[in-house]
Amino acid sequence: MPIRTNRGRAAVYRRLWGWPLRSPRHLVASIVIFVVLVVALGVIIPKVLDRKPAGPNVAAGTSTSVQPNQVGQLPSSGASLPTKQPPPANSASAAPPAADAQLTAELWAERWIKPPPDNDVNKWLAQLRDFTTEEFLAQMATIDPKNVPDRLDTVTAKRSTVSSADFEVSTDLGKVMITLIKVSPSNKWLVNGYTKVG
Predict the structure, then answer these.
(1) For residues 197 and 156, what is the distance between their CA atoms, to the nearest angstrom?
(2) 91 contacts 151 by C-beta, under 8 angstroms
(3) What's the pLDDT tens digit per position in 122-137?
(4) Is CB count within 10 Å lower at the N or C end of the chain?
(5) First CA to last CA distance, the chain
(6) Which contacts (CB < 8 Å, 24+ apart) does range 176-185 have?
(7) Nearest CA to 191 among 87, 79, 106, 118?
(8) Is 166 exposed, middle or buried (0-12, 13-18, 19+ CB in 10 A)?
(9) pLDDT tens digits, residue range 139-157?
């Protein structure tokens, strides 16, 4: 007899949803059915999705001699193995160090080792501002000027391209490598970082 009222439908739904909670046996049976359904769907769905339409060669009855390789199986001796592509060529070609870059490196190093007498970070950064990128100035704000070297020995070019250069700065506390970049549109050389060498 069909269910004609909403109350009747609700009662039927309540009985269906409540069935697993009636007894431990019903609960275990519900869990087993659920697991079987999930496993069956996990097996069936990938098989359905992996089906591919037949290509024109298959429809025409022709076949090719090239077979797809199985996972973990090397291609036949006649086929060549895929090779790793070479890295892209370095767009920045080596160039002799620019005179402007050398001058900026020397001026920056001279001001870097001479913090103000009161070791005020803001004054120290102000004297470096003309020779340093804004990003690197923000990083240098965390440095205590008392920790910088007292004496500068030499500033030597180590690597140079048309847009960047590395200079080795020898000090009484060891060697430091400073990196300069050419900033657009002004084409000024500015210090963009430094690292302790050795």
Answers:
(1) 13
(2) no
(3) 998 999 999 999 999 9
(4) N
(5) 91
(6) 176/149, 178/105, 178/108, 178/109, 180/101, 180/104, 180/105, 181/133, 182/98, 182/101, 183/133
(7) 106
(8) buried
(9) 988 888 888 888 888 899 9
Residue type at 77 in one-letter notation: S
Coil vs helix vs strand at 181: strand
Q: Which amino acid is at 196?
A: K
C-alpha to C-alpha distance for 149 and 102, rounded to whole angstroms: 20
Token code pair at residue 62 = 């022709």
- Find out whether the peptide bond into 185 is cis, omega within 30 degrees of 0: yes
Contacts of 141 by beta carbon, 8 Å cutoff, 6+ apart: 121, 125
pTM of the model: 0.52
